[in-house]
Design a protein that fits this description.
Helix content is 60%, strand content 0%. It is built from eight helices and no strands. Helix 4 crosses helix 7.
Length: 232
Amino acid sequence: MEESQKKILASLRLPFKFILAIWGIHFFQVLTNTDFGSYGIFPREFFGLRGVVFAPLIHDDLRHLISNSAPIFVLSAIILYFYRRVAVRSMFMIYILTGFAVWLFARRVFHIGASGVVYGFVSFVFWSGIFRRSLKSIILALIVTFLYSGYFLGILPNQEGISWESHLLGGLVGIFTAYWYKEEIEADEEQQPPSWQNESEDSSFFLNRDVFEKTKEERQREQQQGSFWDKL
């Protein structure tokens, strides 16, 4: 029980720090009357590359901030708890590659907010269930589908005031990341061989495992050899 609690707390630590960071940055903007929007991603301009790092930390208003905070906290905690071997690497890959993809392909406006990363996390958890095919990953995929099915509308183009490109490209990056790490399975996803395949359990059977594979003559020969050595 104590080990499980430690694992839960460890999985919540990084998401909590990220949420504190984006809320702190937003309130700093409000209190100082500054606008960090120019630090977002501006596609295909060299100065716009800084947005790959900074854009997910910047939000336009409180509604934008709240809408991203809950899903990014929940999804990152799920990834850190259930996919510990690849969690940090996969989250970093989604964060960076989503930003680069937006810089390469999106409209030439400033793109800010963590929604692209959120879509990447949703896609990663869902497609990990498809690629890994373990019971745990499939259940997680179904849970994410139930919680965030409405997000599919966010990838539709020509939505005013919404970076639908970030949503679409984040989702595609999440698929790629899930596929990239599909072979690095967790300990609880490793398939154990059936007990009947364990040769060490032969002693638990009333008859020898190969009794029906031998001919009558071979069995009689073994019995005679055994009797001979007993007499000696």
